[in-house]
Amino acid sequence: MLNIDLTGRRALVAGIADDGGYGFAIAKALAEAGATIVVGTWPPALSIFQKLLERGKMDESRQLSDGRTLEFEKIYPLDAAYDTLEAVPEEVRTSRRYADMGDFTIAGLAQQLVADYGEQPLDIVVHSLANGPEVKKPLLETSRAGYLTAVSVSAYSLVGMVQRFAPLMRPNGAFVSLTYLASERVVPGYGGGMSSAKAALESDTRTLAYEAGRRYGVRVNTISAGPLASRAAKAIGSIERMAEYVANNAPVTEPLIATEVAHAAAFLCSPLGSGITGTTLYVDKGYHAMGMSTEVGSLL
Ligand SMILES: NC(=O)c1ccc[n+]([C@@H]2O[C@H](COP(=O)([O-])OP(=O)(O)OC[C@H]3O[C@@H](n4cnc5c(N)ncnc54)[C@H](O)[C@@H]3O)[C@@H](O)[C@H]2O)c1
């Protein structure tokens, strides 16, 4: 039988702080396929995430289909806005939420992975993180600082991660990130430069696929996922209405669930996806193919 077998592989999933987002669903799918999961969590969200786990609040969602439980081999603090500790402003490094975290930068995480698991600790890297402090503002009202933060955290972070994690990957390594249709079509309400960040992420996926493919033999893909009411997406404000609109107007009308995106991610990162790199894969019930709302006219 053709199946996805990731036994013996280790995946780093960057961007999990609860069980409601795409990162958690992808970690679960990769574990279902047999992979071992390590997590990178944003320092300000780390202790809440650990408490949720310790208090059993995620026990139900951690159940795998074969009776096992999703385990995280290790949870590392990761602030993907920073490449090295020297680049972190003093006030951040010494602040209450960061002071005891050690080296929470991308380079720091790479060093810790090597210290914990040896020179080639990884097979899969999932980039499932984004932040746009001015996401509720139209682009027309977005400040330079807000725009640059959105692009830094949500797009450059992938570049930084490929730079530092690709050399640590065993043969046939794969990266996958999450993008959104607002990169190429106007989605009112997805502001603050987040649409620009996603456009950069998709373009960088192509260039990184070429450069890191040639240099390190890894694959780099991104999934353009439909709207999901995750913690991050709730910051946009109208996420439930966006999901409902997509469900009403997509070719396939059952609401998209995170598991569908997670299964596509597991496939892309598995040997079954070995011929695919540099791609933006739509997992949105086909909504991206539509040109007009079905309210306007339908022959069906
Ligand atoms: N939810 C949607 O509708 C939707 C649609 C398409 C794409 N996406 C993308 O999916 C990815 C995951 O988002 P989600 O919606 O599942 O929400 P989520 O809240 O599960 O994930 C976002 C994560 O990013 C983390 N994060 C924020 N800033 C960070 C930083 N500087 N360093 C490290 N981590 C940081 C947050 O702590 C959070 O854990 C994002 O790239 C998002 O843009 C989401």
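The longest strand covers residues 169-179.
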